[in-house]
Amino acid sequence: MSLLRLDDVYKSFGDHDVLRGIDLEVAQGEVVALIGASGSGKSTLLRTINLLEPIDDGRIVLGGVDISDPRVDVDAVRARIGVVFQQYNLFPHLTVQHNITLALRHVHRMKKSEADAAATALLQRVGLADKAAEHPDRLSGGQQQRVAIARAVATSPELLLLDEVTSALDPELVGEVLDLVRDLADDGMTIVMATHEMAFARDVADRVVFLDAGRILEQGPPAEVFGAPREERTREFLARFT
Ligand code: ADP
Ligand code: MG
């Protein structure tokens, strides 16, 4: 059974149809890369899954629960999903440690001592134990994104959504963030990520999904989509990255 399933999902803003009938299934442990031009609907798709945008039609099912049902407990759904955006993920007025413990205490109702121990272990794992007491603005962009990812997985979500998490970074900082994503993928985390890092998608994703004007135009294993795209639009899009 799939962990996540979108059935014929539609979303428009005013008269602009942004998602136009999205069908997508994601299996437990699968890593799916969403690619497509700017404006094709990648962020909107991720935001609908996290219930940041209500959908107009269709259905979104997570772990057997219809999370697009208006009666759903939004906080309970969000507690099952980790999300990291392009930037501004961390609370600037809180230390790195506190950014992580806040999530643990809020979502898992952990005691402070318990949350502190978990945060310390997590920061160690992402190689940032020495930054625990710093505020985010004292960290590089790459370090901030690593903390943001650590915080997103601290609560052991079933699903991790990543929206162009390296797009705002200087090129030399991209690698350390992608390495962490790769680690999580290797660990079995289910990940749906919008990315412009084609080499990374080819390397890490189990499946690549090409969005074109709010529709999935083509999808498949990276070797197929990148190596032998079936659709002209996919070829045109990919040509920009070579
Ligand atoms: P992508 O992430 O692929 O660049 P987005 O999902 O951000 O695409 O945007 C898809 C389209 O939806 C764009 O044309 C964008 O301007 C529009 N859009 C996104 N969010 C909103 C919003 N809150 N209100 C109006 N239009 C929006
Ligand atoms: Mg986007």
Q: Can you describe what's shown?
A:
This protein is α/β, with parallel strands linked by helices. It has nine helices and ten strands. It has helices spanning 42-49, 74-78, 96-108, 112-125, 141-154, 171-186, 198-204, 222-227, 232-239, and strands at 2-13, 16-27, 31-35, 57-62, 65-66, 81-84, 159-163, 190-194, 207-212, 215-220. A six-stranded mixed β-sheet has the order 6-7-8-3-9-10, with helices on both faces. Helix 3 (96-108) runs parallel beside helix 5. The termini are far apart. The mean pLDDT is 95. The structure holds adenosine-5'-diphosphate (ADP) and magnesium ion.
Strand content: 25-35%
Number of helices: 9
Bound molecules: adenosine-5'-diphosphate, magnesium ion
Shape call: globular
Q: Distance between termini?
A: 37 Å
Structural class, by secondary structure, is alpha/beta
- Strands of the widest sheet, in order across it, are 6-7-8-3-9-10
Order of helices and strands: EEEHEEHEHHHEHEHEEHH
Mean pLDDT score, rounded? 95
Sheet of most strands = 6 strands, mixed
Low-confidence stretches: none
Radius of gyration: 18 Å
The count of DSSP E runs of length 2 or more, i.e. the number of strands, is 10
Give me a quick take on this structure:
It is built from nine helices and ten strands. It has 242 residues and is α/β, with parallel strands linked by helices. The strands form two sheets. The chain has a six-stranded mixed β-sheet, with helices on both faces. A four-stranded antiparallel β-sheet has the order 2-1-4-5, covered by helices on one side.
